[in-house]
Amino acid sequence: MARVVVDVMLKPEILDPQGQAIVRKLPQLGFEGVAAVRQGKRFEVELDGPADEAALEQVRKIAETLLANTVIEDFEVRVL
């Protein structure tokens, strides 16, 4: 059994209001030196078998079809 992680992030050109709200609040909480924050999503996918290239391609298709809105989000698939 293998575990694969899919990280989904807004594309750099897409405004991230949640990330902007966080970065504005940090100095009020005593955290200095943070220039930017981008929020995202993380999915962990457990596979029945090994994380070979065929299985990773299937996870990429799952991410592209269901987990990410590829118009405004990028995703990365990696093995844990």
Automatic annotation (TrEMBL):
It comes from the Bacteria. It catalyses: N(2)-formyl-N(1)-(5-phospho-beta-D-ribosyl)glycinamide + L-glutamine + ATP + H2O = 2-formamido-N(1)-(5-O-phospho-beta-D-ribosyl)acetamidine + L-glutamate + ADP + phosphate + H(+). Pfam families: PurS. GO terms for cellular component: cytoplasm. SUPFAM superfamilies: PurS-like. Its EC number is 6.3.5.3. It is found in: Cytoplasm. It is an enzyme of class 6 (ligase). GO terms for biological process: 'de novo' IMP biosynthetic process. The keyword Cell cycle does not apply. Keywords: ATP-binding, Cytoplasm, Ligase, Nucleotide-binding, Purine biosynthesis. The keyword 4Fe-4S does not apply. GO terms for molecular function: ATP binding; phosphoribosylformylglycinamidine synthase activity. Pathway: Purine metabolism; IMP biosynthesis via de novo pathway; 5-amino-1-(5-phospho-D-ribosyl)imidazole from N(2)-formyl-N(1)-(5-phospho-D-ribosyl)glycinamide: step 1/2. Part of the phosphoribosylformylglycinamidine synthase complex involved in the purines biosynthetic pathway. Catalyzes the ATP-dependent conversion of formylglycinamide ribonucleotide (FGAR) and glutamine to yield formylglycinamidine ribonucleotide (FGAM) and glutamate. The FGAM synthase complex is composed of three subunits. PurQ produces an ammonia molecule by converting glutamine to glutamate. PurL transfers the ammonia molecule to FGAR to form FGAM in an ATP-dependent manner. NCBIfam families: phosphoribosylformylglycinamidine synthase subunit PurS, PRK05974.1. HAMAP family: PurS (MF_01926). Belongs to the PurS family. Part of the FGAM synthase complex composed of 1 PurL, 1 PurQ and 2 PurS subunits. This is Phosphoribosylformylglycinamidine synthase subunit PurS.
